[in-house]
Design brief:
Elements (H helix, E strand, L loop, with lengths): L5 H22 L12 H14 L15 H39 L5 E4 L4 E4 H16 L2 H15 L7 H6 L6 H32 L5 H20 L4 H13 L3
Antiparallel strand pairs: 1-2
């Protein structure tokens, strides 16, 4: 009769259990992977498959009894790290959408707002367009594979342990918010410069020809110039998005 002890059972489960929890937490917070269209059973199955397939490159996992307080602290650590990685990538998406928000407001499309179910707020048409474009770009450049690879590499930088606060001290998440404004302004700056020049020209025209209704003329001109700027700068969206994504994920490796 074949028998095994609890210690042997945990030695078999530990190499898969802790990666499974971290990857599953990633799937609940990362863009594209956390979409509601993906069933929960599919996310669980994919997380288990990733945890099982990554055993070759995983470091040695500690054997922790599940009925101990250390096990609960370790579970919290895996969930916090997985959520933080997905949150960092979501900030890159938010930065691109913030750039679209700035461009849309400068174009005068502040009234053309839509309800965004992910944030619970209003976003304009340009922001939604930038968000959809960067989502497709994320899939095209295999960003989901890069994200999973970064999660696997995070086990070397932040190995499994009972102290979740050690990760928070090493990676200050509160400083990630500045990346939204920096990357958003970086992307939107060329279009904002074009629109600023157009507004200056319209201001000069309104002073020279005061009988001209600058609001009736300037609104279609501003929208037209903004659309031209979006068409010209849209092919250049990949480099800043890729660089920001790599910089964010490098903090977890």
């Amino acid at each position: 009769m074949i028998g095994f002890t609890d210690q042997q059972l945990m030695a078999w489960l530990s190499p898969v259990l802790w990666p499974f929890l971290r990857v599953l937490a990633l799937f609940t917070s990362a863009p594209v992977l956390s979409m509601r269209a993906i069933p929960v059973r599919v996310k669980i199955a994919l997380a288990f498959f990733v945890a099982l397939a990554s055993q070759v490159s995983m470091p040695a996992m500690p054997v922790i009894a599940l009925d101990s307080a250390t096990a609960w602290a370790t579970v919290v650590q895996q969930v916090v790290i997985g959520l933080a990685i997905g949150f960092a990538v979501r900030l890159v998406f938010a930065a691109v959408e913030f750039a679209g928000e700035l461009v849309g407001l400068q174009m005068g499309l502040g009234f053309a707002a839509f309800f965004d179910p992910t944030t619970g707020g209003q976003t304009n048409a340009v922001s939604r367009f930038f968000g959809a474009t960067v989502t497709l770009l994320f899939v095209v450049i295999n960003g989901h594979l890069v994200l999973i690879a970064a999660t696997i590499q995070s086990f070397h930088a932040f190995p499994v342990g009972p102290d979740p606060l050690a990760f928070l001290a090493a990676v200050p998440l509160h400083t990630f918010g500045a990346e939204i404004f920096k990357l958003g302004l970086w992307i939107a700056l060329p279009i904002l410069a074009m629109l600023l020049f157009v507004n200056l020209v319209l201001g000069v025209v309104s002073r020279v020809a005061q009988q001209l209704n600058v609001f009736a003329v300037g609104f279609p001109i501003t929208i037209g110039v903004g659309l031209v700027g979006i068409v010209l700068t849209l092919p250049l969206l990949e480099p800043p998005f890729t660089v920001a994504l790599e910089q964010m994920l490098a903090r977890f490796q």
